[in-house]
Design brief:
With about 400 residues, the chain is an alpha+beta fold. The chain is built from 10 helices and 9 strands. Bound molecules: flavin-adenine dinucleotide (FAD).
Length: about 400
């Protein structure tokens, strides 16, 4: 079910982009996705093609070689990429978050140093917030960075960091002002290079899905980071900067969730027309039809929420509530769609003969990553109640 036949209101440019990325995914990603994910293979061989299409530089200003796409395009691209393989979407998504932060808040020197290579796919970036004792409760993170002359001395551990072995640089959230009250007013972002003295990649963390890229612990043991690596050269803005990256990240996660959901629906629809039971194709049974219709409707709703959040972010700079709604809803639809597709596939859906079990595994993280849905929905409630009080 091509998305373009359903969602109204997209511009010809958006449809052209959708078509181009869909064709790339059909030809270059889907045929090898099962094998790549089984081998947990980092997809760097695809970076030149992605870069040529502007997809490695979506968050990067044109003057640094990026395509600087609007937010609607951003969500639509991740829908298409994740429809092929979430591992690839995850590489591009986490790198785009790092690039966005540099492009929006970095100094001219930082932009010049990192952005052209990121846009060309010669490097990827990433973000490091999560710590062993702190995930959702980001305001209480522990990692410290003490200024000493022209350097910061950084201590602490970050965990569950996507593509840490490749990220150049890794945008790392630290406490530069431990006395700040409330604490999040004393946080900053540092750009960490792989060869920073005292910085090391720790253990790899095995995971259920989102394969093809590593998830690591990273350690800072009196790491010495030049003060020129402070994002934008300004201290104590890191929490706010990271929040704007997370709002953008939620459009990515909403789009990617819709992509996995669509892949699930497309596979289930095809299977239902081919598989017979009791002398009929599965698609003749109303129970199966209703499942397909239910999921298709929710995918449309999720995409409309995503587009709404993207449009509002584009016109108003930020749309935290709408982005939270879109990400939370789309990720729940993603889970439901992958599970319904598995049921329609019967026992075969549970086997590695079909891609359904991969969609199901990849779907499982979507309600948690880039803000756990419970936390996001509570922020939506806070906003509603604030308006009412
Ligand atoms: C594959 C993968 C990739 C990741 N990549 C990165 C990365 O690149 N960089 C990075 O920094 N982190 C990354 N993470 C970490 C991810 O961002 C965190 O797992 C996420 O923010 C949730 O934090 P947590 O796991 O500590 O859960 P917790 O904060 O411990 O929360 C657990 C659960 O408790 C509930 N909960 C918590 N607080 C509240 C509340 N206030 N109200 C209601 N319910 C609540 C929610 O249901 C939540 O799901 C990644 C994780 C995975 C699995």
């Amino acid at each position: 079910m091509p998305a373009r036949h359903l969602t109204a209101g997209l511009s010809p440019e958006h449809r052209d982009l959708q078509d181009a990325v869909r064709q790339f995914v059909d030809e270059r990603v889907i045929p090898t996705a099962m094998e790549r994910e089984a081998n947990d293979e980092y997809p760097s061989d695809l970076f030149p093609e992605l870069a040529a299409m502007g997809l490695m530089g979506m968050s990067i200003p044109e003057e640094y070689g990026g395509s600087d796409v609007d937010y609607v395009s951003y969500g639509l691209v991740f829908e298409e990429l994740a429809r092929g393989w979430m591992g690839l979407a995850s590489v591009v998504g986490s790198s785009a978050s790092g690039a966005f932060l540099i492009g929006k808040f970095g100094t001219a020197e930082q932009k010049q140093r990192y952005l052209p290579d990121l846009a060309l796919g010669k490097a990827t970036s990433g973000i490091a917030m999560t710590e062993p004792a702190v995930g959702s409760d980001l305001k209480n993170l522990r990692m410290t960075a003490r200024r000493e002359g022209d350097e910061y001395v950084v201590n602490g551990t970050k965990t569950m960091i996507t593509q840490a072995r490749h990220a150049r640089p890794l945008l790392t959230l630290v406490r530069t002002n431990p006395a700040a009250d409330p604490p999040h007013r004393g946080m900053s972002l540092l750009l960490i290079d792989l060869d920073t003295p005292g910085y090391s990649i720790g253990r790899d963390i095995a995971k259920l899905g989102h394969k093809g890229l590593e998830l690591c612990e990273v350690n800072f043991d009196n790491a010495r980071v030049p003060a020129t690596q402070l994002l934008g050269g300004v201290e104590d803005q890191g929490f706010y900067e990271m929040m704007s990256a997370l709002d953008r990240g939620r459009i990515y996660m909403a789009g990617a969730s819709i992509g996995i959901a669509r892949a699930s629906l497309e596979a289930a629809t095809k299977y239902a027309t081919q598989r017979e039971a009791f002398g009929h194709p599965l698609a003749d049974f109303q129970a199966v039809k209703l499942r397909l219709a239910n999921v298709a409707t929710k995918i449309e709703a999720a995409r409309l929420l995503m587009i709404n959040a993207a449009l509002k972010t584009g016109t108003e700079g930020r749309a935290s509530v709408e982005s939270a709604m879109a990400k939370a809803y789309a990720s729940e639809v993603c889970l439901e769609a992958s599970y319904e597709a598995m049921r329609i596939h019967g026992g075969y859906g549970f086997t590695k003969e079909f891609p359904i079990e991969r969609y199901y595994r990849d779907a499982a993280l979507m309600p948690i990553g880039e803000g756990a849905n419970d936390v996001l929905m509570l922020s939506v409630a806070d906003s509603i109640l604030k308006d009412a009080r």
